[in-house]
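Lab meeting, action items carried over

1. Structure of the two-component assembly. Owner: GW. Status: complete.
Input record:
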Amino acid sequence: MSVTPAIDTKAAAGSGKRKKGFVELLFEGRAFFALIAIVVVFSLMSPNYFTVSNFLIMASHVAIFGLLAIGMLLVILNGGIDLSVGSTLGLAGVVAGFLMQGVTLPQLGVILYPSVWVVVVLTCLLGAVVGAVNGVLIAYLRVPAFVATLGVLYVARGIALLMTNGLTYNNLGGRPELGNTGFDWLGFNRLAGVPIGVLVLLVFAIICHILLTRTAFGRWLYASGGNERAAELSGVPVKRVKITVYVLSGVCAAVAGLVLSSQLTSAGPTAGTTYELTAIAAVVIGGAALTGGRGTVIGTMLGAFVIGFLSDGLVIIGVSAYWQTVFTGAVIVTAVLLNSIKYGRR
Amino acid sequence: MSALDPGRKDEVVLAARNVAKAYGNIHALKGVNFDIHRGQVTTLFGENGAGKSTLMKILSGVVQPTSGEILLDGDPIVFASSSQARDRGISIIHQELSLAPNMNVRDNIFMGREIMTATGVDFAEEERQTRLLMAELEEDIDPLTPVEDLRLGQQQIVEIARALSVNSRILIMDEPTSALSASEVEVLFKVIRDLTNRGVSIVYISHHLEEALQITNHAVVLRDGAMTAYAERKDIDLEWIVRHMVGDNFDLGAPPAGYEKGDVALSIEGLTVADPGGAGYAVVDGLSLAVRAGEIVCIYGLMGAGRTELLETVAGRLKASAGRVVLKGRDVTGQSISQCIRDGLVLVPEDRQRDGLVQTMTVGRNLSLASLGAFTRGLFTSNTREAGLVGNAIRKVHIKTDGGGAAIGSLSGGNQQKVVIGKMLATDPDVILLDEPSRGIDIGAKAEVFKLLAERAKQGLAVVYTTSEVGECLSIAHRILVMRRGRISAEFGPDVTKEQIMAASGEAVHAH
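Predicted assembly:
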């Protein structure tokens, strides 16, 4: 295979080969071209689609899935899977809501109203703890990732339901006299016209991209996902890497939970149900291999935008929600099909 | 020598005429003529990349030749697929066995072509036929045994039985002995002799030249996609094969001399390792060994002698149950692998596909994996420094590649092995342990690897390598240790003979 590029360049003068090069280009950038196709098709079908305001609204929807997908990408690069992110998102929202209501300390007879940044930090910590539970179960107790995170999915969701008795926290705005206002900033405010949630996604994507491409940790992750034994024998701390990716995935899910409950100004215990599947879909559409070791942040972001822009587009042109599900499924299967063609050729 | 009756007819059953195969502008085969004689063994010799597997793929219908023709019983024939070739009686047994370990012998043999009746699979008939096949091969394997319970050699027999069950007349065996013990090889050879006596033709490919010479009737040598020599067994010897495989200047090297060896770099004291499988005995049994800087030590032993466990324990992968490992005067027993690498003690594992390479990463990224710290400044890796390190490694270890960006899969076996060795040498170690560094690589690459190690030893590197080929002991090693059942059973200087080494290893020479 190593010689193929050289041959292709030489033969590119022939029209037949040029055509093949074009097909390969299409194939390599398939998520990107799919996104363009979606935008073009929906823009032709609805005049409301191709407007700045619509793109910003769709982008803030994508932000939720995108954040989950970034965490999921790290886990999938490691050769694992994290089914608990949807529940972690829900739990994070509920815990944030709980903290915003004020924490009563009966022994001291006071009610603490933590300020918003404290809430954010504590919620992220919670996400990290959930991720650490996953990581320890998988790395040290050798529970298969699928089973461990499936269990945590149920436990986290159950705790969220227990905390609220199935109800939803509605008043997350805080009160000025308590000094805990500003929670809706994450979901509602804009910087230079861009929703904060989208900017959070952008920042996370850039950090994760740098983490993967420019740090030793990124190299460890790709290596241990590609061949854990070889990585271990080369001195990679494979267990630490494994726990770290689940922790990061938990943190991403917690941040997504904060952004979502801020967008809704309410935190329900069932928020984020089945979102883990959307996140996996985004990673797969972005060209990552579920076997580990292959995948990029840029691909995953494209995958998240493909799913988000597709389902929002279907809403805008008035297609029923049931058809949206069918279309999303078709896109996922097509993506996996193309991935298997790509990796199968090696 | 072969047990074949020299007077039997040896008509050509399958022949390649001027067969060439090109992938793009790479010519894998350049007009090869090749005959397979009825009831005889023909062995293909050649280095990795010489075109052996391409030729076998053409003969078994996996790929089609670019030009030239295949004659079956004298008539031109074109195989569109491997199943067409199998229908005409040509089967290939690949190096990696293709059995389902969770299924029993019977179900494996009839996998994909079950004998059906109106009510389902006729298990009784399948079992009867399996018993017949096993009786024919004189192997006492019950058809209902799960394959995973069989020894590797027996699994090989099941694979052969499967090929025979489709009435194969021509059986192509690619490296059939690479995972077998000496006694299992004897069983396999007996089966091969039985098969040839029944008129089955065998094409044999092996890197174990001496072994192949025991069984073959004809020798064909390929080099760079062309046939360089053909002869009958009685006219040739090992020297002849090696000469034609690598050209004239073949030498595995001599112990490097003309320099002072340094202090003791690695000292192993009474090291004991319990069986990782938990069988209760020690795979390494109170073993002691000291290696000085600049010294090359070879550990010879059969499979199961405990070589791999010894090296893996020293390098930090397995835990010792007793004893100490001392590196440059400092106790490093029980340290993690990454600590050992930092301290200058590295291991090149035996199985490069499973333990050595990350297939999803490029050549360059594999080479730099163990020395990430050398080009990380603060939080970030430096691409320029990494490129420098990779370029250096490729040059020093002589890896033939398009560059650091090439895919690992694009390299030949020998070059892949050099990547694994280069990766560890890039960490600038004081002691390097190599577990069977020559496994599955050709003689040319072997000689290069040994030359490289000898050069590094002169610069003060302590080298310990294991091997199961006697010929490789008598090359660059200053000291040759024989390992048997977890202990060192003998120690020799470089002037020892092969027979002495084999006797000390418990290998009864040709006495099976």
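2. GW to write a short summary for the group page. Key points so far: The interface with chain A takes residues 23-26, 315, 317, 336-338, 340-342, 347, 349, 354-361, 365, 368-370, 372-373, 376, 379-381, 401-402, 406-407, 409-411, 423, 427 of chain B (CB under 8 Å). The first helix of chain B runs from residue 52 to 59.
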